[in-house]
Amino acid sequence: MRKFFSSKTAVTIIIGFFVIVGLIAGSNWWARRTNTTPFFQRFMNDLAGGISRVISVPTNAVGKSADSAGNLLNTFAENKKLKSEIDSYAQDKVRLQTVESENQSLKKQLKLKETLTDYDTVSAVTISRSPTTWKSQLVIDKGARAGLRKGMPVLAGSGIIGRISEVNTVNAKVALISDTSEDANRFAITIKGTHGDVNGIISDFDSERGQLVMGQITSSNEIKKGDTVQTSGLGGVIPAGLFVGKVAEVTTDDYGLSKKVYIEPSADLGNITTVLVAVSHMETK
Amino acid sequence: MAFWQLIRFRVIYPLVLFFLLFLDGNLMSSLGGVLNHFPFHILPLLTLIWLFYAIEFEVTNRIPFWVYVVVIGLLFDIYYTGILGSYTIAFLAACVVMERLRPYFDERLMSGLLLCLIGLIIYLLVTYATGFIINIADVSLGRFLLYELVPTLVLNIIIAALGYYPAWSLFQVLS
C-alpha cells in the first residue's frame, strides 16, 4: 500500500492541529472579551474593506438589476395593495407629528432631556457578506469614524436585523439576529398585546423556521398571533420602540411552565443592501 | 522581459486569488436575494475553485502554493469571521485532499470536476465541524446537507466547469 504520510508529516499535522484549535478558541475568547479589535486585525479589515468596496460597485449593480427584475413580476398586485395602505399612512404621519411636538413640550415641562426613544440613525451600505456556513456577518461602509460602536442595533427595511459586532476605522461588521453565537441576538423586547405589554428578551433563533424565539415568559397577559414586537429599551443601550417583527405562534415550553413565542422578523435577513444604525442619545452622553 | 516571463505567473496567480476572496463576499451580499433566499444558504466558493485549478493543472510546484493557501485562509478568517483558524483549516484540508488524490485522476474535464467536488465537500464539512468546536452550530446535519451543501455544490461545480478551459489556457499562456 502507498504510504499516505511520512512520520514527519504526521508530526506536522498534529502540531498544526493544536495550533489551529488554539487559534480558534483564543480568538473567539478574545473577540468576546473586548470591545476593541486588535490593531493588526483592524488594520487588515480596513484594508480589506477598501478593496471590497471597489469590487462591490459592479457586483452590487448586477444584484440590484436582478432584484428589480424580480420585483417587476409582482409590481401590479403590490401597487394595488400599497395604494390602499398609503392613505392610512398620511393620516398616521400627521398624527405622529402632532404627538411628537406635544411629547417634546411635555418633556420640556417635566425638565426631561433625553429619553430612550431619542436616537439618530446613520445609514450605511452593505459591501460584503461573509460566505460562510456559520456566523453570517455583514460588512458595512461606516465605522468608528461615523460614531459607531460595538453593540449598536442595526435596522434594515422595517425592522431590526442585528447588532454591530466589530468596529474598524472605516467599516464595521454586523452580526445578524439569526446568529445564535455570543450575544448577537439578545435584545430586550416587548410584545404589545391587547391587554398590556409582555417584556422579555430574544432568547434564540430557530433556523429551521427562520423565526426568533422569546422564551421563559411567565406573564399571564394574553399574547396573540399578529401582535407587534418592538425593543423595550430595558438595559439602556438599545433605544426603545425599534420594530422587531410580529408574533407568529405562541406555545408552551417543554415543561408546560412558561410560554414560548415565535416571532417572524420583519426584515428579510437574506437580502440586505442598505442598513441604518441606531445611535441612542442616551449612549452618546 | 525574460525576468517578467519567469515571475508573471507568481504575481498574477495570487492577485487573482486575492481578488476572488473579496468577490465571494460581494456576491454573497449583492446576490443575497437568490443565494440567501430562505431556507437556502448557498455559498459562492470562487477562491477554492481557483486553488483547485492550480492543483488540477499541476502548477503547485511553480508557486509557493501552500503559503498562499494559509495566507488566504487567515485573511478569510480575519475579514469574514473574526475567528482565526476555522477557515484556514478548511482551505488547507480541501487542498491537501485534492493534492493527494490528484495522481488518481486524469486530465479530462469530468474527472477534474469530480476532484473539485471532493474538495468542495471536504471544505464544507470542515466548516460545519468547526461550528461545533466554538459552539455556534444551530442547523441539523440533514438541513445543512439539503439546503446548503447540495445547492452550493451544484452552483460551484457549474462555475468550475465554465472556468475550466479559460483557466487552463490562462495557465498555459502565463507559464
TrEMBL record, chain A:
Checking InterPro entries in the record gives: Cell/Rod_1, Cell/Rod_MreC_2, MreC, MreC_beta-barrel_core
One Pfam match, given by its short name, reads MreC
What keywords appear on the UniProt entry? Cell shape, Coiled coil, Membrane, Transmembrane, Transmembrane helix
Q: Which residues form a coiled coil?
A: 79-116
Q: Which domain of life is it from?
A: Bacteria
Q: Which family does it belong to?
A: Belongs to the MreC family.
Function as written in the Swiss-Prot or TrEMBL entry: Involved in formation and maintenance of cell shape.
Q: What is this protein called?
A: Cell shape-determining protein MreC
TrEMBL record, chain B:
Membrane topology according to the record: Multi-pass membrane protein
Q: Which residues cross the membrane?
A: 12-32, 38-55, 67-92, 112-137, 144-165
Where in the cell is the protein located? Cell membrane
Key word Aminoacyl-tRNA synthetase present: no
Q: Which UniProt keywords apply?
A: Cell membrane, Cell shape, Membrane, Transmembrane, Transmembrane helix
Q: What family name appears in the similarity comment?
A: Belongs to the MreD family.
Kindly give the NCBIfam families that the UniProt entry links to this protein: shape_MreD (TIGR03426)
Can you name this protein? Rod shape-determining protein MreD
Q: What is the protein's species of origin?
A: Convivina praedatoris
